[in-house]
């Protein structure tokens, strides 16, 4: 059965939705994305392919994060900044068939920020959203809190990347070899650094807050209000997990001024910033290598190679990271 027919059947059986229009949209890196319409309203449907190994973690996250997103929507001042999840008629967070997992939500009429810079109003709004999210940690029920992933500073992706560099990279004479080879020493240095940071952070006492953990511009939409979408990465982690995406931007000081109205932030942890900065780069690099070599492409080869190249360059230029961050704060 083709994917559109599957979706129409699934929506009828699980949500009583009679689809009048269905259109595939440009999705992100983890799932296919569809615009859905019935007689009354529009929906956004995310479709995860169960056969892609790296997607399993996001599918597993749905049952923990969806009730939390619903709570944040219904019981905090974030109700206009979070998409309301939609449950199945059996009260499920998602539904599935043998190949796909489906996640339905309200449709946001608006534009993804994506490559555009945030305006000053959007920076202030994002600071309010992340401030309120972090602040909400003390109000969430124990039951919901216990369902959330807790940061353990694990670095499995570093082990996998290191093993790939040592044992697999040379096995194929392809464009991945050509692009990655000159950066092998740099990557292995960064992986060593991550081992040190991971151990250091694991042994430190932290105050954990509810973090979105993926609040980059492709997960922010401007509708009537600024909306933070794509919550499958949510976890209890140090504030730096969310703030890393902001403190490297020119608007860091403006953001922090507004953020501090909602949330205390007196002692920035530079180790945590460095950890989350390198984590993002190394995880992305490993993800794109996997797409190119093992799991099949999500975006075009051109886009994937371009991102791989630019992230390797960013990684190799990261030596002044700590001094740059201290200046920005
Ligand atoms: N509720 C929504 N309404 C309209 N568009 C959305 C909605 N959620 C996501 N999108 C669009 O789809 C893209 C991919 O969705 P996202 O949840 O970020 O998936 P991924 O996990 O693959 O990154 C987003 O960048 C955004 O452009
Ligand atoms: Mg996304």
TrEMBL record:
<dbReference type="InterPro" id="IPR002575">
    <property type="entry name" value="Aminoglycoside_PTrfase"/>
</dbReference>
<dbReference type="InterPro" id="IPR011009">
    <property type="entry name" value="Kinase-like_dom_sf"/>
</dbReference>
<protein>
    <submittedName>
        <fullName>Aminoglycoside phosphotransferase family protein</fullName>
    </submittedName>
</protein>
<dbReference type="Pfam" id="PF01636">
    <property type="entry name" value="APH"/>
</dbReference>
<feature type="domain" description="Aminoglycoside phosphotransferase">
    <location>
        <begin position="23"/>
        <end position="249"/>
    </location>
</feature>
């Amino acid at each position: 059965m083709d994917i559109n027919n599957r979706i129409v059947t699934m929506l009828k059986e699980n949500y009583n939705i009679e689809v009048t229009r269905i259109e595939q949209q440009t999705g992100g890196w983890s799932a296919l994305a569809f615009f859905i319409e019935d007689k009354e309203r529009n929906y956004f449907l995310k479709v995860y392919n169960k056969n892609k190994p790296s997607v399993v973690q996001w599918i597993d996250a749905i049952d923990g994060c969806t009730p939390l997103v619903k709570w944040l929507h219904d019981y905090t001042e974030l109700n206009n900044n979070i998409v309301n999840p939609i449950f199945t008629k059996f009260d499920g967070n998602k539904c599935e068939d043998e190949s796909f997992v489906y996640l339905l939500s309200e449709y946001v009429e608006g534009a993804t920020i994506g490559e555009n810079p945030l305006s000053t109003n959007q920076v202030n709004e994002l600071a309010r959203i992340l401030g309120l999210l972090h602040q909400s940690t003390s109000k969430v029920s124990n039951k919901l809190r216990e369902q959330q992933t807790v940061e353990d500073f694990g670095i499995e992706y570093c082990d996998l990347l290191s093993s790939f560099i040592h044992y697999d990279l040379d096995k194929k004479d392809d464009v991945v070899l050509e692009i990655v080879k000159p950066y092998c020493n740099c990557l292995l240095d960064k992986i060593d650094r991550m081992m040190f940071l991971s151990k250091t952070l694991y042994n430190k006492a932290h105050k954990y807050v509810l973090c979105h953990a993926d609040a980059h511009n492709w997960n922010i939409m401007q509708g009537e209000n600024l909306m933070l979408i794509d919550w499958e990465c949510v976890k209890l982690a140090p504030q730096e997990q969310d703030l890393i995406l902001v403190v490297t931007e020119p608007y860091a000081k403006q953001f922090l001024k507004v953020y501090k109205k909602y949330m205390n932030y007196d002692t920035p942890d530079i180790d945590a910033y460095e950890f989350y900065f390198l984590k993002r780069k190394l995880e992305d690099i490993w993800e794109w290598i996997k797409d190119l070599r093992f799991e099949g492409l999500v975006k075009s080869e051109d886009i994937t190679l371009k991102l791989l190249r630019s992230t390797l360059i960013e990684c190799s230029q990261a030596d002044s990271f700590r001094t740059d961050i201290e200046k920005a704060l």
